[in-house]
Amino acid sequence: MSFCIAIDGPAGAGKSTIARKLAARLCLVYVDTGAMYRAMAYHLLRKGTDFTDQAQISADCQDADISIAYDNGEQIVLLNGENVNPYLRSEAVSEKASVSSTNGDVRKRLVLLQQKLAEHTDLIMDGRDIGTCVLPGAQLKIYLTASASTRAKRRYLELTQKGVNCDLNEIEREINERDYRDMHREISPLRKADDAVEVDTSDMTIDQVVSQIMEMALKKRKAG
Questions:
Q1: Beta-carbon contacts of residue 61 (< 8 Å; ≥ 6 apart)
Q2: pTM, to two decimals
């Protein structure tokens, strides 16, 4: 049986950064669910799917086989056996992924593929409904959070370091709005799984968070 870690939490809590570091230290496969949704959008674009037609999206997504592999430490997204990494960050794919990801059948298909991957692969996956919907049987579930003000400050620093002019209060307002949307969406809303461990990163460094979760993961692994 594979060993799986599910990390959920609101935007800006550091889920992806922490999941990647944990994956490297624990020798787990990090599953980039966002990249899988992009690969699905690329699949639909290649098929010539009409993105305004939900029924066509639902039909065309069914023959997409998407998985994650690693080659020399680099994550590769495979679409029907083909490495599609070079195409996933294009503007067209980003735009269409935001459309197709809202389709219920696209979501069902990708959840099925993610669960299939977890059956035979030791992995770590992060998102907003991994522990509650995608991997309800994960051996370790973490609900990673931080105050809205902390997440806003982190985002503000990230943007200003890139030379982007931004407003801290506006960023915090957007974060609060996104939290509300994520927690009240109709399909798989963000919530803490009953058996998840909550980790508040507001006053912690990334390394401190990684060390804390690593300790929990090693205990779970040892317990079998």
A1: 40, 43, 44, 100, 103, 105, 106, 109
A2: 0.86
